[in-house]
Amino acid sequence: MKYSNLKRIIPLTLLASAATLVVAAPAPVTDLNASSNSTSSAPASSASIERLERLIKSRNQIQLQLQQQLDGLSQELSEMRGTVERNSYELDQMLERQRQLYIEIDNIRTAKPTVEAKPEAAEGAYAADTNENAAYQNAVDLILKEKNYAGATKAFQEFVTAYPDSVYSSNAHYWLGQLYFAQKNDVEAAKSFAKVVSYEDSNKRADALLKLGEVAKRNNNNAAAKKYYQKVVNEYPDSTTAKTAASKLESL
Q: What letter would DSSP give residue 118?
C-alpha cells in the first residue's frame, strides 16, 4: 500500500472508532423513581395543606364558640352578682326595719301605765264613769298583759272617739302614738303625739315632744327634729327626757 493511501486510511479509522464510541456510550441514567415520587407527592402535599387548613379553621371556630360561651357566662355571673347584692341590701333593710320595730315594741312592753292598780289620768284623777275607767284599763292591759298590739290600737282608737274629753285623753293619745310609731305609721304617730302636746299639763307632754323629734328624724327632717329636741330641753330642763333630748341633739 502506498504511503499516501495509508495517510488517508488512518484518520478515517480513528474517526470511525470515535463514532463507534459515541454510539456505544451508555445513555444518561434518569431517576424514574424520583420523578414518579415527585409527581405523586404533589397531590399528597396539597391534601395535607387542605387538612391542616381545615383543622385550623375548626380550631378557630371552637375558640370562637368557647369565647362566646365565656362571655355569656361572664354576663350571667355579673347579673347574678347584681341580684345577690340587691337582695342582700334589701334583706339588710328589712332586718333593720324589724330591729327598729322590735325596739319600739319592747319599749311599749316595758313601759308602765300611769298607775298600775287603777287607771289614773295625767291630772291624777279618775273618771266618774266606771265604763270609761274600764275601757281605758282594758286598752292598757292589751299592751302590757296580752301583748295584743293590734287589739290595743283598736281599743285606744275607740276610746278617744267615745270619750274625747276623758281625763285619760292625753295618755290614750300617747299610747296610740307609741303603737303607730312602732308600726312605722309616722303620719298617725305624729298626729297622736301632737295631740298629747296640746295638753299643757300632761305628764306625757315631754315624752310626746321627744317622740315627735324621733318621727322627724326618721323621715330625714333634722331641722324639725332639732326643734322638738330643743323644746324638750328648754321646757323640761331637769327631766330625764331632757337629757335624752340633749344627747340626740348632739348626734344631729
A: S
Nearest to 119 by CA among 98, 94, 144: 144
Compute φ and ψ for 163, nearest 5 degrees: -130, 70
Give residue for cell 285623753.
169
pLDDT value, residue 75: 83
Are 122 and 199 in contact by the 8 Å Cβ rule? The answer is: yes
State the pLDDT at residue 172. 96
Closest CA to 170 of 156, 180, 181, 150: 156
Q: Which of the residues in the chain have pLDDT under 50?
A: 1-7, 9-39, 109-124
| Dihedral over Cα of 22, 23, 28, 29: its sign | negative
The one-letter amino acid code at 89 reads Y
3-state secondary structure of 208: helix
Rounded Cα gap, residues 33 and 36, in angstroms: 5
First to last CA, the chain: 153
- How many Å apart are CA 97 and CA 184, to the nearest integer? 9
